[in-house]
Design brief:
It is elongated and about 60 Å long. It has one domain. Helix 2 runs antiparallel to helix 3, helix 2 runs parallel beside helix 5 and helix 4 packs across helix 5. The chain is 85% helix and 0% strand. By secondary structure, the protein is an all-alpha fold.
Length: 110
C-alpha cells in the first residue's frame, strides 16, 4: 500500500501542471453544477414550501430526474453538445436538482 502512495506522490510531482489544470476543471464543473441547481431549485423550493398542496407533486416531478442515469443524459446530449465540459455540466446539474429542492422544502414550518 505504501508503494502505491509513493508512486502516486511521484506521479503528482512529475505532473504538477496537469494535476492543477484537471483540479481546476473539476472544481469549475462541480461548483458550476451546484450553483445552477441552487439558482433553479432554491426559489422553487421556497415557493413550494409555502404551498403545501403543490410541494409533493413538484418534489415527485423533480425527483423523477434521479431515475435517469447520468450516462443516459450524456448520451442524449452527445449529438447536440459533443463531449466535454457542457454535457458533463448538464448531467451533474440534473443530478443535483432533486436534493436541493427536497432539502429546501424540508425547511418549511410544519
Amino acid at each position: 500500500m505504501f508503494e502505491l502512495l509513493r508512486e502516486t506522490y511521484e506521479y503528482l510531482l512529475a505532473n504538477q501542471g496537469r494535476f492543477w489544470n484537471e483540479l481546476s476543471d473539476h472544481l469549475a464543473l462541480s461548483l458550476g453544477a451546484l450553483t445552477i441547481s441552487v439558482l433553479l431549485c432554491l426559489p422553487l423550493g421556497i415557493w413550494a414550501a409555502r404551498r403545501a398542496g403543490q410541494a409533493q407533486p413538484l418534489i415527485n416531478a423533480v425527483g423523477s430526474l434521479r431515475t435517469i442515469p447520468s450516462l443516459a443524459i450524456l448520451f442524449l446530449a452527445l449529438p447536440y453538445l459533443g463531449t466535454g465540459f457542457w454535457p458533463a455540466l448538464i448531467a451533474l446539474t440534473v443530478l443535483a436538482l432533486p436534493p436541493v429542492l427536497v432539502n429546501t422544502c424540508a425547511t418549511r414550518p410544519i
